[in-house]
Amino acid sequence: MAITDWPENERPREKLLAHGPRMLTDSELLALFLRVGTRGQSAVDLARTLLARFGSLSQLCNAPIDEFAAVPGMGLAKYAQLQAVMELARRALAERLGDGALFDSPMAVRDWLQLHLAHLPHETFCVLLLDTRNRLIEAVDLFRGTLNQTSVYPREVVKLALRRNAAAVILAHNHPSGEMEPSHADEMLTRDLGKALALVDIKVLDHFIVPAHGSPTSFAERGLL
Predict the structure, then answer these.
(1) What is the pLDDT of residues 84-96, one digit of tens each?
(2) Backbone phi and psi for residue 211, each to the nearest 5 degrees, phi listed first
């Protein structure tokens, strides 16, 4: 049955306009992005097929181009549109972080880190540089490593923070393996960076572990700083 044959209050677009996007399921939101289905499938049916094939909305959004384009009804144009939507979300969150103190919107920090780091197949170490009012100056991907290890040099972090006149930093790196817990090496690195930055009067406010799936883990919330 086509979506236009559904009762009006069950159609994704009308449901969103009446109640807001939060009331829609993942498949309904995805159906609005897709706009049309394929032969024998409504847009919602196609959305459910995609979610089942890739396992989750996150995995779908971060699927390799060849896997995404291989799905009947998809293609390079839809892939480009989806990546544009993802980048718009990243940039909107980055603007939000730059407009005010980061700790006024801790969920925005987590959301931005998830969008920025969670999908990467390699470890990346990111430094969020903050001014004296905890507003974002810049976010810099400083080191890139293999699947299991990143070499982080405290001297380079200090140089970056001084060059951008930062008063504080938030550190973050992803765990492509999906591990949510900080390792012993993560804790040692955080201590070393904290000591090095303290010598030049720059605070480490937090360090986030960003797993491939799930919410980032905060060192500050765990009492590890």
Answers:
(1) 988 888 888 777 7
(2) -75, 165
